[in-house]
Amino acid sequence: MKKLLAPLLLAFCAGAWGQSTEIANPDPKVEARLKSIAHELRCLVCQNQTIADSDAPLAVDLRRQTRVMIAAGKSDDEIRSYMVERYGDFVLYKPPFNAATAFLWVAPGLLIVGGLAGLALMIRRRRDAMAAAAPAPAPDPARRKEIEALLAADEDVKRK
Amino acid sequence: MAGESGGNAMKSLKYVVPLAIFGILCVFLAIGLTKDPRKVPSPFIDKPAPLFTLAKLHEPEATFSPGQMLGKVWMLNVWASWCVSCRVEHPVLNDMSRKGIVAIVGLNYKDQRADATKWLQQHGNPYLLSAWDIDGKVGIDYGVYGAPETFVIDKQGVIRYKHIGPISPQDVEKILLPLFAKLNA
């Protein structure tokens, strides 16, 4: 476990170190907002990393640009749309709902509803089939009385 | 019973439907495999080329702005001396320039002036001029994420096509020449 942990911790240190040397006097407020925005933006050079995690030159440039925009008082939405205008929706880790992504967003819901409907249908069909295969005994008052009489007689025998 | 045939159809449907779903899934995944995830569709297609003013690479005191190319079909090619794939593409650009197919403007991206001019001396200069984007700011405005990238811009200054990665001779034949013919018509 320790053997595993050491390189992991080292990797984290390296990341932290890389970011803190990026600018001379980081403003903690700006850095905190940068972090929250940069974690939602994809670095297009190393596509499975955010621009917060990546050390690619483009990610460094985009972090710098984001800092400038934060310092200029831009809102998170303004910064996001700045990136989308230039790099497309792909830059967002959380894709927006539009014509191209509608299926992506709706599909899980459709699958769940479809699956539940299928399940309900199957359960009902199985219950109907079972009911058809073994019909409940018809309620026959005369027969019932006969059985009760027999049971009562049996009780009498046992008591004697 | 509702009838044997109905039951049989039901039973075969039980096998056909999952198979069909699996088949559709396979088709989607197969299409996915043929796509290059590095080629991200550009949001700039059919939008006006972003404006900028940059110093020229060879004439530091002169500036270039896309407005100077209005009325011409031209290519903005993003390149750098540190860019390995640009070397692959460069002979194709040299060839296009020699044949006078189209005006090519270079966007020298995050490069040192001395390195860039030396590189052009070594490999040939197919560019009408190169704009010098030292800090990559114009690159960001054009959504550049990896050189070489090439934009085809029409007479009205609208981006009509973006090529990501090196242009091959096949790309010139199959994509660019027909596009230039259409835009110049």
Question: What report would you give on this structure?
Answer:
- The complex is a heterodimer of chains A (160) and B (185).
- Helices cover 68% and strands 0% of the residues of chain A.
- Chain A has helices at 2-20, 28-38, 57-71, 76-87, 102-133, 141-159.
- Chain A starts with a helix and ends with a helix.
- With 185 residues, chain B is an alpha/beta fold.
- Chain B has two domains: 1-35; 54-184, 3-Layer(aba) Sandwich (Glutaredoxin), CATH 3.40.30.10.
- Chain B is built from five helices and seven strands.
- Chain B has helices at 4-34, 84-98, 113-123, 137-141, 169-184, and strands spanning 54-55, 63-64, 74-79, 103-109, 129-133, 149-153, 159-164.
- A five-stranded mixed β-sheet of chain B has the order 5-4-3-6-7.
- Chain B is elongated and about 85 Å long.
- At the A-B interface, helix 3 and helix 4 of A face helix 4 of B.
Brief digest:
The complex is a heterodimer of chains A (about 160) and B (about 180). By secondary structure, chain A is mainly alpha-helical. Chain A has six helices and no strands.
Features:
heterodimer, A: 160 residues, mainly alpha, Helicase, Ruva Protein, domain 3, 68% helix, 0% strand, B: 185 residues, alpha/beta, Glutaredoxin, 2 domains, five-stranded mixed β-sheet, two-stranded antiparallel sheet, 5 helices, 7 strands
**Count of DSSP-assigned helices of chain B:** 5
CATH topology of the largest domain in chain B: Glutaredoxin
Task: Tell me what portion of residues of chain A adopts beta-strand conformation.
Answer: under 5%
User: Number of domains in the coordinates of chain A?
Assistant: 2
Computed structural class of chain B? alpha/beta
Kindly state the mean pLDDT of chain A as a whole number? 82
CATH class descriptor of the largest domain in chain A: Mainly Alpha
**CATH superfamily grouping of the largest domain in chain A:** Cytochrome C biogenesis protein
CATH superfamily of the largest domain in chain B: Glutaredoxin
Sheet having the most strands of chain A: none
